[in-house]
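Design review, sub-item: ligand-bound model
Attendees: FS, YL, KQ
YL presented the inputs for the zinc ion complex:
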Amino acid sequence: MKGGLVSESGVVLLSERRPTPRADGPDAVVGAIRDFIGHLAASGAGGPAGVGLVVPGLVSADTAIYAANLGWDHVPAADFTRLDVPVMLGHDVRTGGLAESVLGAGRGVSDFLFLPIGTGIAGAMILHGEPYGGSSGWGGEIGHIPVIPDGERCACGQFGCLETYASAASVGRRYSLRSGQEGVRAEQVVSSDDPVAVEVWDEAVEALSLALATYTLLLDPSMIVLGGGLAEAGPALFDPVRTRLVRRLAFRDAPPLRPAALGMDAGMLGAALLGWRAAGRPDLGPGWTVDVRPEPMVS
Ligand SMILES: [Zn+2]
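KQ shared the predicted structure:
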């Protein structure tokens, strides 16, 4: 868990990490969050105006509806704090996308896709400047778009999902399977020129370009923001994906690919935006100057 105290002017006054006591059960995790928020609140001068909390799974602004890996089932927002302040909950990836929209790579852009590629592949569709979760909160599951008909079985139960071919974990796993070498990380596969690595990476790039072409044709984004661990590969990821995306689209231009700007801080900064929204200050954020990690722009 990562938490922080963020002032009205966007200054991160305090930022801390704590382990998630997942093994102790759903209630213990809620209790640990309650303690963490209490600790952060006590560290500031005066109490906080609001709390923004980003959680995985299905979530609405006032309920953590369902999180398989934490065992949560309809936990109300009020359970997460003893402080008498408004609380707003947000979905982890969509809130990261909100932060990239207001403070990061998507600043000044109304419609884009935020796609963190790490252990899995998630997506936040930013429409009119706001993340869109669909009718039931499942919107944006780009990692589970079937890109290969009758392809490999995904952990989700479907076949041929993007995530099965192109997540960092899948690239490492698929390389190990074919080469017989255990424990090879995606970054090593990307930067290796042995034929098996080239083949596995080629299939990952192919799968990504298919999914991004689909997204582009459906929603006409003005840019695609790639983040997560695999985006650290830089040109080794961006260049081939851009080339294939351009090649796939015949009658329209491909949107530019950009690296995410906020890195690991996107979730916490997005939570701060939610906290201020809960406190009745939806105007805060656009004027903030955050300490953005310098990264090369890729056009
Ligand atoms: Zn899947």
